[in-house]
Amino acid sequence: MIKRILVLLDDTPYTSAATSYAIDLAREHQAQVTGIVAISDEAIERGAHSMGIGASYYARKLRESQEHQLDEEANRVLTEFSRACSDANVPNLDVKTHAQPLEAIIEESKYHDLLVMGLRTNSDLGGKQGQDLLINLSREGIIPTLAVSSRHRPIEHVLYLYDGSVQAARSIQMYVTSGIFKSTSGTILTLSDDESEESDTAEEFNSDMAVYLDSHGRHCRRKIDAAMRKDEILDFAAEIEADLIVMGAYGKSKIMQFFLGSLTKTLIRSSTINLYLYH
Fold first, then answer.
1. What is the CATH number of the domain that holds 193?
2. Are residues 9 and 144 in the same domain?
3. Are residues 162 and 258 in the same domain?
4. What is the pLDDT of residues 214-251, one digit of tens each?
5. Based on the domain organization, do 190 and 254 belong to the same domain?
6. Same domain, residue pair 125 and 187
7. Which H or E run includes 7?
8. pTM listed for this prediction
9. How many C-beta atoms surround the C-beta of residue 144 within 10 A?
10. Are residues 111 and 203 in the same domain?
11. What is the domain count for the chain?
C-alpha cells in the first residue's frame, strides 16, 4: 500500500509523464503526492568562478542572475505540478531545495513510499546530468523508484527480471505488496547457461517466483533463456510489449553473476521502457 508519493520535477518532458503516473497512482490508492525541485549550486558556482580573479563583483552578479533564473524556473515547474494535481483532485505538497539533489531526495524519501522520476533528468534542476542521479538512487535510495519514459501510457504488461538473488526477490515483493498496477499481465525472465545444473536452478527460480506472483493474482508467462545477453533484455522487453521492467538494483546473481550493477547501469542508460528499481 502506498500513501505518499514523491515526484522529482525538472523542466524536461519526463516531468509531465512522471506527474501523470504519480497522479494515476495517487487516485487509485488515495495517496498524497509531493513534488520536489532540487536546484544544484554546482552550475551556478562554475559560472561565477569562470570569470577569474579580479572579477568578483561581476561573478557575484552573474551568480545572482543564474540563481534567480533557476528559482523562477523551479517556481514555474512547481506551479504546473500543483495545477495538474489540483485538476485531478489529488492532495499535493511541494518542496524546493538548494541541497544536493541526491541528498534532498533521500531525506524526503524517509517520509514517502515511492519515488517517481524521469529516466533522464535535467542537469540544472536535477543536479546530476543524464542518468547519473538515477544510477546513484538505485544504489543509495531507501524507497522504490519508478523511473518513467517521456511518454505516459497505461501499464498493461510487466517484465519481471528474476535471477534468484535477494535483491531481485526484494524488488518484486515490494512491487507486488505495494499494490500498484494490479491489472496487468506479466512475464518472468530468468537467464541461465547451457549447463544442465544451471538450467535446472534457473527453472526452479523461475517456477517459484511464478507461484509467488500467482498467489498475489499476478499471472505471468515464464521465460528461461540460456542465450540472451544483458544487452538484449530491452529488445526482448520491446518484443513482448512490456510497459514496465521490475528489477533489483545491484543484485549479485546466483546464475552467471548476471544481474550486477553493470546491468542496472545498462538498462538505466539505454531503456525507453519504464523501470521499477529497488535494492
1. 3.40.50.620
2. yes
3. yes
4. 999 999 999 999 889 888 999 999 999 999 999 998 65
5. yes
6. no
7. strand 4-8
8. 0.89
9. 23
10. no
11. 2
> Is there a single domain that holds both residue 256 and residue 180?
yes
Query: CA 129 to CA 11: how far, in whole Å?
Result: 13
Domain that holds residue 27: 4-148
Residue 275, amino acid: L
Contacts 24+ apart (CB under 8 A), 55-58: none
In terms of C-beta distances under 8 Å and separation of at least 24 residues, what long-range contacts does 210-219 make, across chains too? 212/172, 212/173, 212/176, 213/160, 213/172, 213/176, 213/186, 213/188, 216/176, 216/177, 217/182, 218/158, 218/176, 218/182, 218/184, 218/186, 219/185, 219/186
Q: Which of 130, 148, 166 is the last residue of a domain?
A: 148
Instruction: List Cα–Cα distances, 44 to 62, 63, 127, 190, in angstroms.
Output: 8, 6, 11, 46
For residue 200, give the C-alpha cell: 535446472
Q: Are 3 and 31 in contact (CB under 8 A)?
A: yes
Alpha-carbon Rg for the chain in angstroms: 20
What's the grid cell of residue 104? Answer: 534532498
**Contact between 146 and 253 (Cβ < 8 Å):** no
pLDDT value at position 258?
46
